[in-house]
């Protein structure tokens, strides 16, 4: 079993398809098929269920994936450790929710890049559970996540606090008028969605229609058009509110603030680029008011 075989296995597990994994890895499909079969022969077990919809992991496959993620993560960490030098260089992968990436991070990332231009900085976004999964699978060095992160494999470093608000179309003067409106949210796994749904239940609102959107822009656009209401940080909708596109509302029993943390695996290798990013995060006060448009 070689690291290359584990990377192929990891790709097939993530994509759920030999064809998609081959395209992702830029391999021919027959090569991917052969390496998966060889792995199964070497381990004397079936790693995937094959069916019309693609491939899903067996119990043995799930167990191997956990080890593959750890092994490949350690190999990446070893490479970073060997290539560390006085001048920081190498990859630094950061994850974040869309709302955080849209407002809070641009200045921080720009400042970091100016100071350490040889670091290959990347940012991936998604809703909270997607981003946490990237941390757990060693796909990012750390990520910005809102709210508590109840997972025993990670540590959470406080980054900043967000003021929350219910957001409606600008013409809606009273929050009570929103009772019949759908709520516009990301897919399940978004922390803001969880907070909003809990608030609705606690206030005995009739179960609203839920409309799921894939991007922050689509949610704000839908709210502005009168399609429904949502819950977002004040910082994210400040410009739209100032322009008269949306209106923000304070609401009783709604949490006024929510903390965003920088989340890392407890066993993560802290490379020099990552340590410098943590130092920047700790020292940089511009993540608060100065960073807002």
UniProtKB/TrEMBL annotation:
Domain named HTH lysR-type: which ranges?
A: 1-58
User: What Pfam families does the database record attribute to this sequence?
Assistant: HTH_1 (PF00126), LysR_substrate (PF03466)
UniProt keyword annotations, A-Z? DNA-binding, Transcription, Transcription regulation
Q: Which GO terms describe its molecular function?
A: DNA-binding transcription factor activity; transcription cis-regulatory region binding
Quote the PANTHER family the UniProt record gives. HTH-TYPE TRANSCRIPTIONAL REGULATOR, HTH-TYPE TRANSCRIPTIONAL REGULATOR GLTR
Homology family: Belongs to the LysR transcriptional regulatory family.
What name does the UniProt record give this protein? LysR family transcriptional regulator
Q: Which organism is it from?
A: Cohnella nanjingensis
């Amino acid at each position: 079993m070689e690291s290359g075989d584990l990377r192929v296995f990891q790709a097939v597990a993530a994509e759920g398809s030999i064809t998609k994994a081959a395209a992702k890895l830029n391999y021919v499909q027959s090569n991917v098929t052969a390496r998966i079969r060889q792995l199964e022969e070497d381990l004397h077990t079936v790693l995937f269920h094959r069916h019309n919809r693609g491939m899903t992991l067996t119990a043995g496959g799930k167990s191997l994936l956990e080890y593959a993620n750890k092994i490949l993560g350690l190999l990446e960490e070893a490479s970073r450790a060997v290539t560390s030098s006085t001048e920081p260089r190498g990859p630094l992968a950061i994850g974040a929710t869309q709302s955080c990436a849209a407002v809070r991070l641009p200045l921080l990332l720009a400042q970091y890049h100016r100071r350490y231009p040889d670091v290959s900085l990347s940012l991936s976004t998604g809703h909270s559970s997607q981003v946490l999964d990237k941390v757990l699978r060693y796909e990012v060095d750390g990520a910005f996540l809102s709210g508590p992160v109840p997972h025993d494999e990670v540590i959470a470093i406080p980054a900043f606090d967000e003021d929350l608000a219910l957001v409606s179309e600008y013409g809606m003067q009273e929050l009570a008028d929103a009772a019949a409106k759908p709520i516009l949210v990301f897919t399940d796994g978004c922390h803001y969605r969880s907070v909003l749904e809990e608030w609705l239940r606690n206030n005995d609102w009739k179960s609203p229609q839920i409309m799921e959107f894939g991007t922050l822009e689509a949610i704000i656009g839908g709210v502005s058009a009168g399609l429904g209401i949502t819950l977002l940080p004040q910082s994210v909708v400040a410009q739209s509110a100032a322009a008269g596109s949306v209106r923000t509302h304070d609401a009783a029993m709604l949490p006024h603030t929510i903390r965003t943390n920088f989340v890392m695996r407890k066993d993560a290798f802290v490379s020099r680029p990552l340590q410098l990013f943590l130092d920047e995060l700790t020292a940089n006060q511009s993540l608060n008011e100065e960073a807002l448009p």
